[in-house]
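Hi R.,

Here's the chain you asked about this morning:
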Amino acid sequence: MKIKNFTFLFLSFSVFIFLGCASTAKNNQQTSPAMLEPQALARFQDIPVPVGFKSLPESSYSFESSGIRVGVLQYQGKADPEAVVNFYKEQMPMYNWFLLNAMEYGDRILNFDRENETCIIRLLPKGPKVVITISLGPKSQVLPKKAKKTLDK
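And here is the predicted structure, written out as tokens:
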């Protein structure tokens, strides 16, 4: 009788441990990077910055005058670089920015544009942190081509 009780307890305990470990391992796996949220306050209101990223003022500057904006802003924070790329791919269109192209190899560079401005977002992984550099400027004006003059002799 004691052996049957011991066997029953041992099997019950083993099943309990096995099921507990299986569910713990399943919960710890992440299939995709965590979603990031934009900060409430950013230097340029139409260029979002993920929550938790701090401004690096010694590496940043901006200028605004008569509707022209120019700036290089740097931020640093802890995040998966892929999550930051996805953040900008999802958030920038909400502010009327169009993704032109993305280069992702080590550093990640995202080029956006809209009517009169361009914005380049560069992500540089540094260990567990990511440095975001946002470069903003006006589009260059396309000048009409001059007609070629022929020399009459």
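One quick note: DSSP finds two helices and seven strands in the chain.

Cheers,
M.
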